[in-house]
Write a structure and sequence with these properties.
heterodimer; A: about 300 residues; mainly alpha; two-stranded antiparallel ribbon; globular; B: about 325 residues; ABC transporter involved in vitamin B12 uptake, BtuC; 13 helices
Chain lengths: ~300, ~325
Amino acid sequence: MELIQLLLNGLSLGAVYALFALGYTLVFSVLGVINFSHGAVFTLGAYFTYLLIGGQAGANGLLAGLQLPVALPFALALPLAGLASALVALLIERVAFRPLRQRGSDSLLALISSLGAGVILVNLIQLLMGAESYAIPIGTLGSLPAALRFAGAQVRTVQVLLLAISVLLLLLLSVWLEGTRSGKALQAVSEDPVTAQLLGIDSDGMIRLAFGISGFLAGVSGGLVGLSVSIAGPYFGISYGLKALGVLVLGGLGSVPGAMLGGLIIGLAEAFVPAEWSGWKDAVAYGFLFLILVLRPQGLLGRPLGTKV
Amino acid sequence: MDAGLLEQMLIGALLALSVYLPLRCGQLSLATPGFFAIGGTVAALLSTRIPIFAGTGATSPLPALLLEMTLAGLLAGLLALAIGGTVLRLRGIYLAIATIALVEILRVITLNLSFTGGALGIFGIPQPFTTTAGYAGFTLVLLALVCWLCARLEQLRLGRAMAAIRDDELAAACVGIDTAQVKLQAFVLSALLAGLTGALAAHFLNSWNAKVGSFDASITTLAFVVFGGSRTWLGPVIGGLVLSALPELLRPVGDLRLIVFGLVILLGPVLFPQGLITPQGLQGLGHRLLGYGQQLRGYGHKLLVRVNGPRRP
């Protein structure tokens, strides 16, 4: 394969990982917990997108043969799927996180309850839509050509689109976090929720906001991956979710630029694994993760970990 | 009860204890399925490739099983010893993620090496027991032994040091506990237990592949402990027994069973933040049972009085 295609593959994969990891990061920074239902919300986003563009449910689920009366263009279906995923993420916050937080329970417990929420979602999808794989047809992109000529090489339009949308979202998120009042408020909550509350910031509201945005990002990246690779079944978000954990730690837990850098590194590294070694590709992210934990546990851009007395 | 289900429950309880050991000193390690997978692979390889382990026909000798379990436990323990020093410097969620990565790396390795059978795994592992009941009996004895050891451990210096580290690592270090050493010992014990359980499970399941040690398994085993309670050894045992039986018991609900399983995992921490079994709960139960006992004695006494008439001085 040509270098430019490899590079683009790596970059777009990395951008998806970064989006995914940012969803983890947002929730982690305000709650100090990894939200294990994130992968399921990602999967859900892909299915929402598929249904919204007018895709038909397969024969094996309860919804067999269902088709929405309207077939939206992809440009509209994707943000809508993102919004629907955000609502689900808010619901998860309400059911799996808030009761534990109000009681001041160990954060380990939220890890488990969020996982339970994920298990429910994934199996609900399987029940309704069956275990088969779905593909979002390229035709959804309307008049866009399937491939573009770029610097003398053929590249898939989908990859370019994936990269462009991801980068746009990453930029928007950074601008929001650094440049707006509510973004700063979120940072304050991540620093210390109680103090932030005392200073007049609605900590609970910011936590909900973090969940909403993280769900939106997950839904959108699910839809994008569904378009570029296909939806391999209800469990397809899990492997992305696990790798995004690697991305997260590589960049530094709780660091937004870190999540982007980590996504880029792991995406590129995976893309450049030679085809004859493709079976080992999955180990790349975890290998990196393991190395960084041993050498620099706070991650590339994270703050050093101190011991609190 | 179905002996196969019982065996699954017992294996679940053993794995739950393996997760419990590091958690007793506050270390959230999700590496148990990785060591479980290693143990199973060791047993599967030995008993399908080496004649003295394989035995004759479809049955393999019991001493071979014991030797395999020892070797599997030792190998898993050695690996834990080798990586433990590095990994256990990590705290909290970092340790959890590192151990998830470890499990995934081991899974990819097993998937890609030719002698572990790749994606298909190893088939036709010989059976040391002719019936499922044989397995269940053997595992019951093993579980009882491990429970006894864990109960002893909680009374020993090591067990108390573990609890001290869980409650406050810094304070534990200040009173002279070698925290790194204690954590490492707990991690190695956990790996050893997972490894030998894997060797047994490989025979029981008859085939072994990379899927055994997956992220799902990490989380399920953790759920055993969180559901049952991580303060005393009985918690993980109960959690392991109940949650391993649950998907099977829910079979009548059909397609809904995994959703119900998810609901249990979701609501467990919300309803029982300490887990089902806590030392205080056990104490309360003990007092209540004692109370019932005394009440019963009272009834018995009244009954005797009614039958024999009041006792004369």
